[in-house]
Amino acid sequence: MSVLVWFRQDLRLHDQPALAAACASGEPVQALFIATPEQWMAHELAPMRADLLERQLNQLGRELAELGIPLHLLEVQRFADIAEQLARFVGQRGIRRLCFNREIPIDEQRRDAAVVARLAHTGVQVSQYEQRCVLPPGTLHTGSGHMYQVFTPFARAWLKRLLADGFELLPPPGPQGAALDWQPRRLDYPKRDSGDWPVGEAAVLARLRDFCARHLRDYGELRDYPAQDATSRLSPYLALGILSPRQCLAAMQVELGELPVERGQPGFVWLNELIWRDFYQHLLAAHPQLAMGRPFKAHTAAIPWRKDRALFAAWCQGKTGYPIVDAAMRCLNESGWMHNRLRMVVASFLAKDLHLPWWWGEHYFMRHLIDGELAANNGGWQWAASTGADAAPYFRIFNPTTQGQRFDPQGDFIRAWLPELAALPAKAIHTPHAWLAARGLADSYPQPVVEHARAREQALALFSEGGTRHV
Ligand code: FAD
């Protein structure tokens, strides 16, 4: 009889509770990954993310094989069919116990509930663990026993709990048997080369340490400048669970000697981002309707967004005539990643300048981002569209030109992604049309698809129509 670890978005050996528990059982350990191509398609898994997943899966399979743990790969098209297939699998392989780490979105929860119910008839014990967040969803409450809707008190409660309870990292398991062979596997899903992103925990931990050494202390000053490359770029790894958020805390502690839990301490701003990450995960756990396309603030469902496909195409292709927006979108399309400041700028532009449904942008991001992650993506979009918990107030409307001037002052980021503006001097690059026209180049870059000042007024009216001003 043996114990089975079901790997999902937790593709690592370090700080992996389900794997650690299985290995502590003293029984032979087997591992499983279930590919679900149709479900992934429905969840809009980006081809670049699928490629990263396949590469990490092969790396993990190799590392598990060295420890004597075979990693099996099952393909089941949809979550709905997993319970039955898994019951057959555990029956055939003499499994006594199944260990996995909990996942938060509603489809994953339903899948797991079906598995638990199905295995209850087989005598196979099911053990579930927490690892997605630093503090598990459902463990922080307001005085009235509900999940926080505002970030600041959530963060205060989060820090208090962390300081009271501390945290521990689980070590990777030692050998469980003789080393095994590993044959590389392929996932049957559209893929796009993710080779710019190394896989393997050693490489990811090296990136984490390098970020902490070089940028943890100046993150607060530099994090908003996309040309600076001063953020960690760890999001694809946190999203796939190649890295745990607790490993990030541990690395900060090593670098700084202690966790920067006070505002103003070097490193606090980065810790705060990890708390935002937990906040959105906890929100999704408490409000599963967020995974069903609904706004957090129910009354904002009445906003008459403009369903204009031509404007949306201009936004997707980076042809809006606003250089910082266009550079950001072309960066996303070509590289699968976008800097946080730019995500805020393009999301605000989509909702408040183009007045398009925010969920169109949310879906587009999921289909293209290498770090696409439901809780953070939905949280970011609803923040920008002023429909979410603790969102930007509806009247806060980024001016895309001044955002560019402020956060890409020399235009370096724009030049890197918009070759047609590469020759422009810094003082003209954010408002390039007059400079281009004077040189007979007006056709080389799109005219603005909307005029910001007018679009801003229209957005205020739109929110008013949606009832926001009266709430
Ligand atoms: P760092 O600045 O180094 O931050 C460290 C980690 O903290 C990140 O890797 C991430 O896991 C977490 N984090 C940072 N900022 C946020 C935030 N605002 N909300 C939640 N977690 C955060 N993040 C995703 O991981 N996946 C998404 O699909 C996603 N979609 C977004 C959509 C919009 C419209 C917006 C405004 C933000 C979105 N974010 C998303 C959050 C944020 O933009 C990225 O996490 C960040 O840019 C990743 O870069 P980094 O790893 O260098 O982050």
Give a verbal description of the structure.
The protein is of the alpha/beta class and 471 residues long. Helix 6 crosses helix 11, helix 11 packs across helix 16 and helix 13 crosses helix 14. The model has no long low-confidence stretch (mean pLDDT 96). The site of flavin-adenine dinucleotide has 28 residues, from helix 9, helix 11, helix 14 and helix 16.
State the main characteristics:
single chain, five-stranded parallel sheet, 21 helices, binds flavin-adenine dinucleotide
Annotate the secondary structure layout.
Layout: E1 2-7, H1 17-24, E2 29-35, H2 37-42, H3 47-66, E3 71-75, H4 82-93, E4 95-101, H5 106-119, E5 125-129, H6 151-165, H7 201-215, H8 219-222, H9 235-240, H10 245-256, H11 268-286, H12 309-317, H13 323-335, H14 340-353, H15 358-368, H16 374-384, H17 400-407, H18 412-417, H19 426-429, H20 433-438, H21 452-465
Parallel strand pairs: 1-2, 1-4, 2-3, 4-5
- Mean pLDDT comes to 96
Helix content: 40-55%
Please summarize the sheet with the most strands: 5 strands, parallel
Class of secondary structure makeup: alpha/beta
From the spread of the alpha carbons, the general shape counts as: globular
Number of helices: 21
Distance between the termini: 60 Å
Gyration radius from CA atoms, angstroms: 24 Å
Topology as H/E string?
A: EHEHHEHEHEHHHHHHHHHHHHHHHH
Low-confidence region ranges: none
Task: Describe, in short, the structure shown.
This protein is an alpha/beta fold.
